[in-house]
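Re: that chain you flagged

S.,

Sorry for the slow reply, it's been a week of failed gels. I finally had a moment to sit down with the sequence you sent. For the record, here it is as I used it:
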Amino acid sequence: MDLTPNDWQRANLPPLAIACPDCGSAAGELCTSHDGTRTRNSQVHRGRTAVWNQARIDGNPAVRLILDAAKTRRGMHGKHAAELLDGHGHMAEAERIRRAVSERNGLLSAKQAAALILDEAEGGETQ
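Prediction finished late last night. Pasting the structure tokens below so you have them in one place:
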């Protein structure tokens, strides 16, 4: 059984970059199902995705700051996220969130602000 991902899988399954805690597949290998008898061709295990997302978040202090604050503050708005970042020395990220709040007529949650910063930091496109 070949566990080497093809081009589509590499492009569309970024969690392949880390090892899977559920099936034990190494980084760069496809997840397996049915006790390792078949490879998963179009998805990875939820545990692998969760670990990958956590690594992305932990690698960006501004995003980590916003998401930690959002856990304890119900209804945290993007404007509040910008103020929090500004107070902790993340001026560029705070300004980017302020622009996004303005562009979206005030409709930006703190979690959306964190996702925006994370996406831009990773070179993704924004809306």
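What I noticed first: The two ends are 40 Å apart (CA to CA).

Talk soon,
D.
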